[in-house]
Amino acid sequence: MRVTAVTCVKNEGPFLIEWIAFNRVIGVTDFLFYSNDCTDGTDRILEALAGHGIVAHLPNPAKGRGYQMEALQDARKQAVVSQADWVWIADVDEFLNIHAGDHTIPALIEACGNPQAISLHFQLMANGGVEDFVDRPVITQFTRTHNPDIWGSELAIEVKSLVRQDFPLHYYGAHRPFFPVKKVKKKPVWTDGSGRPVPPKFLVAANTRRIRKFPAAGARRHATLNHYALRSLDSYLVKNDRGDVNRENRAFDDTYWRERNDIAHEDRSILRYLPALEAEIARLKALPGIGALHEEACELHRAKRDALLALPEYRAMREQLKKAGTLCPAEEALLVSLGLTPPPSPYQEAR
């Protein structure tokens, strides 16, 4: 089975090797990366890996700021996508934690009944009080998370999707594929991570509020999509400076952080992959030039952190985030209105 992962990156150098290694462990066979405006060696790592036949790497074709959508349009023209049996569109901070069978993508597909698409729900992994960037697997550092069925005040949680080649595709979205509803006589067979049909309104994109999400309750029997949107406090500051691949120079305020830093639950199940992951990371780093490029990216990441912390506004932001609680603003306001005390910041607890 040929499975191609497609992703867009900007300044993800320290995290590339782990993400590629992890996806190879779960059954991804090919990679198509689009990069733009990298200053931390991300593009150099990808070029070197492309030279070893590990990935395909292209400059992002976007003419404006729609980096991800324009790249996904271009991806359909690339042989690594058009010749794949399945396409997996995800970001470098997203890890597909498969519970079925031997914990690989083929096992997930079989468990879900071999549909034409599978949409997997995010599990937002909290920062949990991790302050310093360290060069070791992200999946080992962040195990605290929210109630699997509820994110803040939301029962509907965003998804990312595996898409089979025969899906009646109109276009790829970053979170789900779209098909021409009025032109397709037979709707595609499309399941959640438990093998259940996705909700009808999600299927046909009829509900604009939930065009890329639907209720998560009971949807993770066979797989969970761990989303490490925050990582360490160091890395979050660098991410904030970078913006993201979707909207150039977008800054994140502490609402984004607080909405993703719920530490009510712990999920360590993804650590089942650690022995195989570490072996694959070592194998990739042993390729000529790759280990040195990875080390350079880590040093550039630290240097960017240090440069940011020389600025008063970033020092203030760091302190603001360290004081922030672990509830989304709406939940925190509700507790206060009821005369209750919100839980403290994990940084305050660590003192």
Output the keywords.
ten-stranded mixed beta sheet, about 20% strand, 14 helices, alpha/beta, about 350 residues, two-stranded antiparallel sheet
Describe the structure.
With 351 residues, the chain is an alpha/beta fold. It is 35% helix and 18% strand. The protein contains 14 helices and 14 strands. The strands form three sheets. Strands 1, 2, 3, 4, 5, 6, 8, 11, 12 and 13 form a ten-stranded mixed sheet that branches. The protein has a two-stranded antiparallel ribbon with strand order 7-14. It has a two-stranded antiparallel sheet with strand order 9-10. Helix 1 crosses helix 10 (274-285) and helix 8 (233-242) crosses helix 11 (290-309). It starts with a strand and ends with a helix.
Question: Any idea what the radius of gyration is?
Answer: 20 Å
The overall pLDDT average reads 93
Structural class: alpha/beta
Q: Poorly predicted ranges (pLDDT <50, ≥5 residues)?
A: 244-252
Strand content: 15-25%
